[in-house]
Amino acid sequence: MDIETNKEKPCLTLAIETSCDETSAAIIADGRTVLANIISTQIPVHQKFGGVVPEIASRKHIENVIPVIDECLKQANVKLTEISHIGVTYGPGLVGALLVGVAAAKALAYTLDVPLIGVNHLEGHIFANFLANPDLEPPFIALVVSGGHTSLVHVKGYNEFQLLGQTRDDAAGEAFDKVARVMGLPYPGGPQIDKLALQGNPEAIVFPKALNEKGNFEFSFSGLKSAVLNYINSAKQKGEVINNADVAASFQKAVVDVLTDKALSAVKKIKVNTLVLAGGVAANSALNAKFTANCEKEGIKFYHPNIILCTDNAAMIACRAYYQSRAGLYSDLYLNAVPSLKLTNL
Ligand code: KG4
Ligand code: ZN
Predict the structure, then answer these.
(1) How much helix, strand and coil, in percent to the nearest 5, is found in the chain?
(2) Is 113 left (phi over 0), alpha (psi -120 to 50) or beta?
(3) Cα(75)–Cα(92) distance, rounded to whole angstroms?
(4) How far is CA 50 from CA 56, 179, 181, 186, 188, in A?
(5) pLDDT beyond 90 at 284
(6) Confidence band (pLDDT; 50, 70, 90) for 321?
């Protein structure tokens, strides 16, 4: 209790996210209010290589992590001594990149003598929805679609998840990035294809939809990616002019159709009434439009985070850390990076 103001002090979560190519630190109050969410992106550094170079990512995180935390404290107007606990992404992700955040978080937790909370990046993506939508409560179905993951999750409670299905090969975002690369578009390809597709005809080319049978919650995008590459290569060999906008729109439609069908059928099977999108691909305009329209038609509540909370950020990690702290799910100072960490599957 704060004697001067006679008010309960807020629970302040500081979180660090360094799993891939964004160095991010955030402070949130009482689990759902974002005070600062600083994201330093490395996209321009990796763009010239056409994708993330792990060793460069680690080095950039080392350079950026302290300035990003400092800026976060400044923007939130919070002193380090006021922090209640520290959350950090410890997997899945690039091992060298993860280690930078984990080391920084451990040093802070030890020095400040506050609890440390290791957070699963995928769970963090789902929890971005709690920040974006104050009325959202479990249970619901979450579709996590990012550069590294495509997973359908039954979120039964704040600390209870069941993985319903995931990709057997490429993630949805990875397919966007690889197809964009072949089309000569810069990294990351998802937003580029999204933009280009607006000028194309999604019905122009019929690309395959793998594992599309009812009741199958697994995904596969590598066949679709190969079909697009074959289409482009064979058109080039025949000297035909390719309409890039049509290719982008048709490819995007194949991804969006599969994601929508499977997510809606999971909602029906599990008998919940709420569906949320999470991860970088959740920013896709066609995906959002189709989810919005179909959920409205079926009377399902649909939530998705705004673009800042869709892509990698530490606020979502802080939100997940807060709910772990409420359940006493802390880590010790032996916390290590786990590059292939799986969702907490109960
Ligand atoms: O969640 P995120 O920032 O990082 C990972 O955890 O992977 O997601 C990045 C992925 C990239 O593959 C990027 O191309 C994709 O999200 N992405 C999009 C869009 N914006 C980002 N994909 C399709 N449409 C978009 N508008
Ligand atoms: Zn991510």
Answers:
(1) 45, 20, 35
(2) left
(3) 28
(4) 13, 12, 7, 7, 8
(5) yes
(6) very high
User: Where along the chain do its domains lie?
Assistant: 9-127+310-326, 138-304
Cα–Cα–Cα angle for 214, 343, 164, rounded to 5 degrees: 15
- CATH, domain 138-304, list 3.30.2130.10, 2.40.50.180, 3.30.420.40, 3.40.50.2300: 3.30.420.40
- 191 CB within 6 A, ligand 1: yes
pLDDT of residue 171 exceeding 70, the answer is yes
- pLDDT value at residue 326: 97
Q: 92 preceded by cis ω (within 30°)?
A: yes
Do 9-127+310-326 and 138-304 share a fold? Answer: yes
Q: How confident is the model at residue 214 (pLDDT cuts 50, 70, 90)?
A: confident
Q: What's the CA gap between 131 and 124, in Å, rounded?
A: 11
Pocket probe for ligand 1: among 176, 181, 192, 312, the residue whose CB has the most ligand atoms within 8 Å is: 176
pLDDT of residue 345: 60
Task: Using alpha carbons only, give the angle 25, 26, 27 rounded to the nearest 5 degrees.
Answer: 140
pLDDT per residue as tens digits for the range 142-156: 999 999 999 999 999
Question: From CA 301, how far away is CA 293, in angstroms rounded?
Answer: 11
Residue closest via CA to ligand 1's atom 8 equals 280
In angstroms, rounded to a whole number, what is the distance separating the alpha carbons of residues 231 and 205? 9
CATH architecture entry for 9-127+310-326: 2-Layer Sandwich (3.30)
| pTM of the predicted model as reported, rounded to 2 decimal places | 0.94
148 Cβ inside 6 Å of ligand 1:
yes
Query: Does residue 93 line the site of ligand 1, with CB under 6 A?
Result: no
CA dist 86 and 317 (Å) reads: 10
pLDDT score recorded for residue 1: 47
Average pLDDT, the chain: 94
* Tokens linked to 163: 């993985």
